[in-house]
Design brief:
Helix content is 40%, strand content 17%. With 138 residues, it is an alpha+beta fold. The structure holds adenosine-5'-triphosphate and magnesium ion (MG).
């Protein structure tokens, strides 16, 4: 489906108590929550989720970070979901993120940047299936 994206609220934002604030910004921006859970990635889960970055120098750090504590995973629906959600979260590096974006407000560094958003419709579908069984999606 071209109108869904997969969000993760990353361990840093969960640890810092931002789940409620982030979900409020997401729903205020017009996204509907179609699936939602608090969960934790194993090291192997994080390695598979970020497989595309395996050769990057930060891969080990990224896997350790993403598996160190609970995350919130959600499927979000809206027209133009992938692109509009990436606009809402802002640039990967919070220092470069626009004012008012989720990463500008809640991220602490380029590595610990509060939220994930899918980068294509194809990956949104793959990532939603990674986190949710069919009966968990509405
Ligand atoms: P995400 O996929 O998590 O939504 P993104 O699409 O903005 O983020 P990617 O290039 O896909 O950015 O990088 C995935 C994640 O890897 C980033 O969100 C960040 O946590 C981490 N990362 C990216 N670049 C760096 C870097 N230079 N140093 C440390 N960590 C990085
Ligand atoms: Mg990405």
């Amino acid at each position: 489906m071209a109108n869904t994206t997969l969000m993760m609220i990353k361990p840093d934002a969960v640890e810092n108590g931002h789940i409620g604030n982030i979900l409020e910004k997401v729903t205020n921006a017009g996204f509907q929550i179609k699936a939602l859970k608090l969960t934790q990635l194993s090291k192997n889960d994080a390695e598979r989720f970020y497989e595309v970055h395996r050769e990057r120098p930060f891969y080990g750090e990224l896997v350790a970070f993403m598996s160190r504590g609970p995350i919130v995973a959600a499927v979000l629906e809206k027209d133009n979901a992938v692109s509009d959600f990436r606009t809402l979260i802002g640039a990967t590096n919070p220092e470069e993120a626009a004012e008012g974006t989720i990463r500008k407000l809640y991220a602490t560094s380029i590595g610990e940047n509060a939220v994930h958003g899918s980068d294509s419709d194809e990956n949104a579908n793959i990532e939603a299936a990674f986190h949710f069984a069919g009966r968990e999606r509405f």
